[in-house]
Amino acid sequence: MSRTLTIFIDGLPFDQLEKLPYSSRFVSKGRLVPILGYSVNCQTQLFTGKKPDELGFWGEWTYAPETAPFKKLAPLFKLLSLVEVSYYAKRVVHRFIDKMGRASATKNIPLSYLGQFEETGHSVLSSWFKQESLLQHPKMKVILHNKFPVVERRDEDAYKATKKYIDETDDLESVLVTFTRIDACSHWLGVASDPYNELLLVQDKYIEELSEAYLAKVPDGTILVASDHGMVNVTEQVNINLEREIGNPNANGYAYFTEGTILRVWCERDAMREKIATYLDGVAGMEQLCDEDRKEFGITNPKFGDLIYHTHEGHQFVPSFWGPKPSVGMHGYHPRYESQHGICLSSRPGDFDGKVSATDFYNVLSGYLGTA
Ligand SMILES: [Zn+2]
Prior knowledge:
Alkaline Phosphatase, subunit A, alpha/beta, 13 helices, binds zinc ion, Gyrase A, domain 2, about 375 residues
C-alpha cells in the first residue's frame, strides 16, 4: 500500500508525451491501449476495472424501445422534428428536453428517434454514475473538473483547488484530480495545433507542481498519471444514409445510432440485418467490428447492437448524432491505430511498461489504495 496522487487527463495521446518535459521523465511508462469506444467507457474502466459487458453499457445511449424515458413523448417528438431543418431551433428543443432531467444530454439525436433510445451509460466521473468505483474509496480525496462551473477554466480551477488541498491538509491521504481541456482542444482546434501544444505545456506544469507538492508532503507516495485514450485529426468524412437506402427506421423494423466514429444498428429480423450489412459493407472508410474484437473489448452483449461499424483512422461520420459537422480531432477509432493510445505513468519503477490496459491501471491503483 502507498498513498497516491492520481492525475487523470482526458484524451492525451501517448505519442504526444515527448512534448511534456516533466511527464515524459516518469520512470514507469505504459502505452495505454483502450477498447473500442468513447470516454464514457474508457474512463470508467480506469476506475472500475470493468469492460462494457460487466458494466452493462457501451456508449451513453442504447436502443431500448420498451424502457426509453421519452417513449410516451414519441408522437410529440415526431411533430417537433419539423423544427430540425434549423440547427439553432433543434438545439433549443434539445436543451429544453435535457432540462426535463430524464437524460444528462440528448446530443443531436434526431427527435423522431429519441423516443426509442435510453441513456444507459454514464462516465465514472459523472454524478449520474451509480455503480461502485475507486472514486468512492474512503482514503481518496477526489477533485473533479466538472465541479467547476466555468468550462473553459476547469483545468486551471481543478489544479488550483488540488494544490491548495495538498498544501493545506495535514495527514494527506490519496488524491485524484481530473483534467479535460486537452480533449476539448483537440476536438475543436486539432491535435498538435499551436494552442494544443501550448496547452500540453500548461498541463505538464500542473503535473509537475502537483507531483512535487504531493511528494514534499508524502515522500514515500506514488504519482500516477493516466489518460483514457488518444486522438487524431479528422481528414475524411463518411456519409451514410440508411433512410434513403433502407427506408425509415420507424417503419422498417430497424434502429440505428451514429456517433463520430461508431455506428450501431439493431434489427428485428435477420433479413433486414443482411440487407443493411450489404449496404454498409460497401461504404468506403469504415468496416464492421468482428466477433473476436467484440469479445476482446468486452462488448458481446447483443443489446449493444446487432451490427457495429467503426470508421477508419481519421474518418468521421458526417452528419451523425454527435453533430452535423466534422470535428477537427476525434477519438473512438480501433485501438490498432497507435494514435488512439493513451498514457499510463507511475513514479514507481515496475508499475507500467509497454502496452497496458485500463484494467491494468485499475489494478495498480486499487493495489495502492488497499481494500476499502
Ligand atoms: Zn473527447
